[in-house]
Amino acid sequence: MRTVTCLSYTGQLSNECPESLQPTTMQQCESKCDATPNSNNDECKDVNKVAYCPLVLKFKFCSRGYFRQMCCKTCQGH
């Protein structure tokens, strides 16, 4: 289960997100739910050379799959 929260570009709570664009609050896993962090530190690194991973952490986007993958090292443990 996840919590869907609408945030402004500054990371503040907002009511301006169209409900039609929000992901569902709950969904069934396709195969298995893998909630365990990547234990192999060699494979877990921030993909982008652009320094936006600290912002991903600051605005608490590490729970989103895309950002967790792109900023694996930064998001590790969060």
Brief sketch in words of this structure:
With 78 residues, the protein is an all-alpha fold. It contains three helices and no strands.
How is this structure best described in words?
The chain has helices at 53-58, 65-70, 72-75. The protein is mostly helical and 78 residues long. The model has no long low-confidence stretch (mean pLDDT 77). The longest helix is centred in the C-terminal third of the chain and has 6 residues, at 53-58. 9% of the residues are buried.
Which secondary structure elements does this structure contain, and how are they paired or packed?
Layout lengths: L52 H6 L6 H6 L1 H4 L3
Protein name: A disintegrin and metalloproteinase with thrombospondin motifs 6
Keywords: Hydrolase, Metalloprotease, Protease, Signal
Pfam families: PLAC
Percent strand equals under 5%
Taking Cα atoms only, what radius of gyration do you get, to the nearest Å?
Answer: 14 Å
Structural class computed from helices and strand pairing: mainly alpha
Distance between the terminal alpha carbons, to the nearest Å? 17 Å
Q: Which percent range fits the helix content?
A: 10-25%
Morphology call: globular
Number of strands: 0
Mean pLDDT: 77
Largest sheet: none
Low-confidence runs (pLDDT<50, min 5 residues)? none
List the helices and strands in order. HHH
Please give the count of helices. Answer: 3
